[in-house]
């Protein structure tokens, strides 16, 4: 029989000290952040008031207003935040310290996240929202050497037909000959129809066999997990966008809807076909692409309008193709970007029948991650889509790069328990997941991966979240 130890004051104080935020160094490659939270712990209430008055004065407010801040937790939160910025101020040349203090005073949270010894939420929020992370990353991540920049820029568009005309993002559309409309129709539409056929047959099943659907609550669990993993694994980049979705109430699951049971509009159908038309049109597996042969230039708005109208006429004139387009719409994930909230995310709930359900579930998980990444890309980067000859490199290829980062982390760090939760509702044999090594969207994924390899992970993710497009070989002009 063992005698239970009677706790002493020293035991209790050891627990208190253990759970207090302590001085530490946060490793956020390529950055390191020093946290001196211990400097705040020993301050008296009067000393806290004096420091708060100084903070208010620097922030451009009447120091007397500091006395109105009576909430103990908020008083400490503000001191911790300012102390964190002050300790790391000199590490980032050009950081607007006064502007950061002004933001903190004007935006104190209703439910503040406090420093904790084994978490970094407080530091990420303070450093992210005050632009310290963004400024630090831009100062830390070196600009691209000219040779690398040119190599990356070439991935966004083919060289000009006239070698004396400059190429690359933002170059004149005069590089491309006039669009051969008849050739585009003749060559593109059959390739696009084959693409639709190959997609639709993945859900074929014997007559009379009822389809099986994934449960909405199971997909909800995956969506929330994907958001948590993205926030944890894409640091410090995800927190470097001070007005990004992670800081403005982003709830991925609230955006998703069941696409399999959604009837599309004509506009919906054509938009989805446009997406796949670029995959078919840029395919070079059999030689020169259809877009190259027809002189299609995505930088010319007239060419884009013509393609959109052509696809609309195609499904209007051919009922069988229209039925294929509807089925395709209902059986492929998508993300719209209407308004400022990132739009909605449509997920496919029906299980594919050409593979085990567990494999189909892993593919659904990857889709969930992919569609979430559409909501994370910086608007400045997304705005370059119409300024390059291969728009899908940014629109989908870049999304695939981030999908690979998050999805592979989920596989590499998964446990038996987490896998069991992810496979809820799945019947039949359990197929182990396969790491994502090849990016989707054919040529666009290949070029996006080339850019990632050329510029490196730090530059790529910094550009993805902060919109500093020069880091990935794009020109602001």
Automatic annotation (TrEMBL):
Question: In which domain of life is the source organism classified?
Answer: Bacteria
* Positions of region (Disordered): 153-178
Compositional bias annotation for Low complexity: 164-173
Q: What is this protein called?
A: DUF4932 domain-containing protein
- The scientific name of the source species is Sphaerisporangium dianthi
Taxonomic classification: Bacteria, Bacillati, Actinomycetota, Actinomycetes, Streptosporangiales
